[in-house]
Amino acid sequence: MPHVPKPPQSAKPPTPLRSAPAESGSRETLPNKTLPADAQSAESLPADALPVDALPVDALPVDALPVGALSDAAPQLDSTHDTMVGFDQESVDSTNLPDIDHEFSMQELFDAELREAIRSVPLPGDEEKLPRVEILGADGQHAALMRIDHPVKLRVRGSLGDYAFAYNSQTVIKVFGNVGHGVAEGMSSGSIRVRGHAGHGAGTAMTGGTLGIYGSAGDRTGGAMRGGGLFVRGDVGNDVGLGALAGTIVIGGDAGNNLGNPLSNVAVFIRGKAASLTPGVTEAPLRKKQEVQLGLLLISAGIRGDATDFRRIVPIAKLAAENAARGEVVPNWR
């Protein structure tokens, strides 16, 4: 069936992203990599999908953060220690562009047609080699690419609006732009990496998979999580982990107010500082078990960092139970 042009969006266009100037002469550079002509570099990320109030007041855009220094309060690392090189190896190497197996445009297909086109991509016999699908025409669309449950590698050029990739399953997704509120809500498996900023409620009600955000994120990041791993390279807003029961949240920069949940088993790690902690939780150094857990998530998120630079945010009752049991968590600590 021939493609039907997609009618203009009737929803209100997203508000431009608030930007902050980069510090002159202070930014380190990424290792020498050449982006393809149509690729978006960190210095030219689209800024059309994130409301002004979706970021913490003092959050810096990703291109203003020195590589290896995720926040002013974080330990200084050399430029080879914490980079985005592993973010998308095939995307930054123009020689791999011919390997794209399928290409679809969000400007030419309705949402349902696009989902069906992705799900109809045939899978090879080799389960280790997933088909690569390029998505063009991303321009702040809301509720885009929801409920994709096909094992393919999906690469999106441009920014998306609210609820992008909600209820994702199996798909490996990489976005070269910003996303709005509710990215990856209800995600159950697969991975999503956003080379830009995210709005409020990133990873809400996740039950599995990995969500990596390489800019900053807003309030209630990881709210109501039930599993999976959530990594934010920059700063986050208030009430991170609100209502979360399980999973892992890693914050590379600073956090706002009310970080943590005193009745939660979610593992929260932070490298910067929090404006305030929720009553009933405290900061504690990592044990060997948490170092391994955090190290695995950093690898999964494509970040080369040292787990020992982080502290964990843990309920006071849980920490006391750990100490009393010599490192083993007492099941009824709550």
UniProtKB/TrEMBL annotation:
SUPFAM superfamilies: Alpha subunit of glutamate synthase, C-terminal domain (SSF69336). Transmembrane segments: none annotated. It comes from the Bacteria. Residues 1-16 have a biased composition (Pro residues). Residues 1-45 are annotated as: Disordered. InterPro entries: Glu_synth_asu_C_sf. PANTHER family: TUNGSTEN FORMYLMETHANOFURAN DEHYDROGENASE, SUBUNIT C (FWDC), TUNGSTEN-CONTAINING FORMYLMETHANOFURAN DEHYDROGENASE 2 SUBUNIT C. This is GXGXG motif protein.
